[in-house]
Amino acid sequence: MADTKRLWEMFRTGKYDVYLSTVTLEECPDPKRSQLLDCLEQINYTLVRINNDIIEIAEQIIEMNILTKKSYDDCQHIGAAIISECDCIISWNFKHIVNIKTIRGIRAVTNLKGRKPIEILNPSVLLESGE
User: What is the pTM of this model?
Assistant: First the structure.
């Protein structure tokens, strides 16, 4: 929690450009959605709407057995970050996103698609490199 708060402070000061997929808002149940929306009012961010390019990448992630259909929302998050040409994905989701299988698989996807490589990190790693 402390790392999340420190990272959020960096977002508030504009140290990083923040991108957020519409899936984040859709998958977040109330009352957490209300809390998230309140927090988002404190920062500048770009909302990434899901489109065909993002869906194509999400489906390729599943076809390559990097993640399963059960993790389709996670696949869309990753696709949104790739299409938006983000430098990195920051997540606490160690089960599906921040793990060696997904990291290597996404590296293969970006190579196959001719897309910019993307780092996948937990917030603590970003804090260590950003301070």
Answer: 0.91
